[in-house]
Write a structure and sequence with these properties.
With about 130 residues, the chain is α+β, with helices and mostly antiparallel strands. The chain contains four helices and four strands. It has one domain: 3-Layer(aba) Sandwich (Glutaredoxin), CATH 3.40.30.
């Protein structure tokens, strides 16, 4: 009877295989309808001064989404729960708000303080640039 060796004992090889499988699955999923995204990055365990900025920014985001003519996909990221996202989005202080168009291109980025009017102005300016 042949001796069976465990497959992918090496953690690096196992990681590469999992990444490849994930990439294949990701590519197999059809692309979603182009919908603009608003990425809101906060941190639930931040100090009180940062939490007050996060609360204020969140209210401005909610107001912007309620008044927007388009539907946005809201992506809320809590750095206390997903610390790796800080590197992905280069968010080393909170709050951070990123507007992206339907193709995933960054339209605007706001760090710390923002208003609903600034969000609207950035989105309208983008729409004017994108119009034929």
């Amino acid at each position: 009877m042949p001796i069976r060796k465990p497959l992918l004992r090496n953690p690096t090889a196992r990681s590469l295989v999992l990444r490849a499988a994930t990439a294949v699955l990701f590519l197999a999923v059809p692309a979603a309808a182009a919908q603009p995204r608003l990425v809101f990055i906060t941190k639930s365990n931040a100090c009180s001064c940062q939490l007050s900025l996060c609360t204020s920014a969140e209210q401005e985001v909610v107001n912007f989404l309620a008044d927007a003519d388009e539907r946005f996909q809201l992506v809320r990221i809590d750095l206390a729960k997903t610390p790796g996202a800080a590197r992905t989005y280069k968010a080393f202080a909170v709050p951070v708000v990123i507007l992206e168009d339907g193709d995933g291109n960054r339209v605007a980025r706001f760090d710390a303080v923002l208003t609903e009017l600034e969000l609207k102005a950035a989105w309208v300016a983008h729409q004017k640039r994108a119009a034929p």
